[in-house]
Amino acid sequence: MLAARRSIVTVEEIVDDLEAPPNACVLPYWALSAVCPVPGGAYPSYAQGYSERDNRFYKAWDPIARSRETFQAWMQRHVLDTDDFAGFRRVLAESMAQIMKEAV
Q1: Disulfide engineering: 57 pairs with which of 35, 38, 44, 85, CB 3.0-4.6 Å?
Q2: Are 64 and 71 in contact (CB under 8 A)?
Q3: HEC secondary structure over the chain
Q4: Given its phi and psi angles, is residue 49 left (phi above 0), alpha (psi -120 to 50 degrees) or beta?
Q5: Rg (alpha carbons) of the chain, rounded to whole number
Q6: How far apart are CA 94 and CA 88, in angstroms?
Q7: Are 7 and 33 in contact (CB under 8 A)?
Q8: Rounded to an integer, what distance in angstroms lies between the CA atom of residue 1 and that of residue 10?
Q9: In angstroms, how far is the first alpha carbon of the chain from the final one?
């Protein structure tokens, strides 16, 4: 991040007073170009004190990440072909529902 010309971070919320818990990631203001609030933006991972990790996703991720071709197809559908974070969440939910259906 410190070597980048521009950096954008997404955060759960913007606060007036930072009461950072232990192990918090604190970035200096001069290293940031923009701060964008994206509630739930860490999904499927977690944000300490805001959300929990979706372990179903991580179990499903293993076969996706095994081959470059499968990974690229996943990225195209879930990231490149979605307009925004809401679209990503919608497409991911559809995929997860299909994966869960096939697992039964």
Answers
A1: 44
A2: yes
A3: CCCCCCCEEEECCCCCCCCCCCCCCCCCHHHCCEEEECCCCCCCCCECCCECCCHHHHHHHHHHHCCHHHHHHHHHHHHHCCCCHHHHHHHHHHHHHHHHHHHC
A4: left
A5: 16
A6: 10
A7: yes
A8: 14
A9: 43
Stated length of the chain: 104
Residue-wise pLDDT for 10-37, tens only, equals: 999 998 988 887 888 788 888 899 999 9
**Can you give the pLDDT of all 104 residues of the chain as single tens digits?**
677 889 999 999 998 988 887 888 788 888 899 999 999 999 999 998 899 999 989 988 999 999 999 999 999 999 999 999 999 999 999 998 888 888 77
Residue of 13, 16, 17 lying closest to 40 (CA atoms): 13
